[in-house]
Design goal:
Radius of gyration: 16 Å
Number of strands: 6
Structural class: alpha/beta
Helix content: 25-40%
Distance between the termini: 17 Å
Bound molecules: magnesium ion, zinc ion
Order of helices and strands: EHEHEHEHEHEH
């Protein structure tokens, strides 16, 4: 049962590395499909959202493109593989938005909200009051706060990080986050 007055969540934006898949070591990038490994429960969490009729999109910084670690075609192949891994678990993504840029040269690299705003342009019916942003970094939280979405920070550090990030909620995994959203806000539902 959702809380009275809290609008149900119909749009969920997910960070990629560290939220859906095992993150690469700091300073490195997933540059090949073979490096992509789903985190436990990630596909199940997305499946729950799919079945509730929630739109699910990825918003991901991929600066490795600007640095020449991979091309856009390689990134496309990685995302095709990600969709395939999810499909095997009965889960589906509605969209993937990525920022390929270097720091400081664009309006879409998180913590900026440009990727979320691109989704809004593509889906004029998107109301961020019905949206949640889930990610494992402060940049994810800040991007979500900038558009007025509900924000959930994934971390296993129980104390300290939440206050600094300003996240509305903290969870230890994507599945935990989705379970909380379902109980606290309700998922999908008609207008
Ligand atoms: Mg991340
Ligand atoms: Zn960008």
């Amino acid at each position: 049962m959702s809380q009275a007055g809290a609008p149900p969540v119909r749009w969920v934006f997910l960070d990629r590395d560290g939220t859906i898949n095992v993150p690469p070591p700091k300073g490195q990038y997933v540059t090949h499909s073979k490096q992509l490994q789903l985190l436990p429960g990630a596909a199940a969490a997305i499946r729950v959202l799919n079945r509730a009729g929630v739109w699910v999109g990825i918003v991901t910084n991929q600066r490795g493109v600007a640095l020449g670690c991979m091309g856009e075609d390689e990134l496309d192949a990685i995302h095709a593989h990600l969709r395939e891994l999810l499909a095997r678990a009965g889960a589906r993504l509605d969209a993937i938005y990525h920022c390929p840029h270097e720091q400081g040269v664009c309006a879409c690299r998180k913590p900026q909200p440009g990727l979320l705003l691109a989704a809004k342009r593509a889906h004029p019916g998107l109301d961020f009051a019905h949206a949640a942003v889930v990610g494992d970094s402060d940049a994810d939280v800040q991007a979500g706060l900038a558009v007025g979405a509900h924000t959930i920070l994934l971390t296993t550090e129980e104390h300290g990080k939440q206050a600094g990030s300003g996240a509305d909620h903290i969870a230890c995994s994507l599945l935990d986050a989705v379970s909380w959203l379902r109980e606290a806000r309700g998922l999908g539902g008609g207008a």
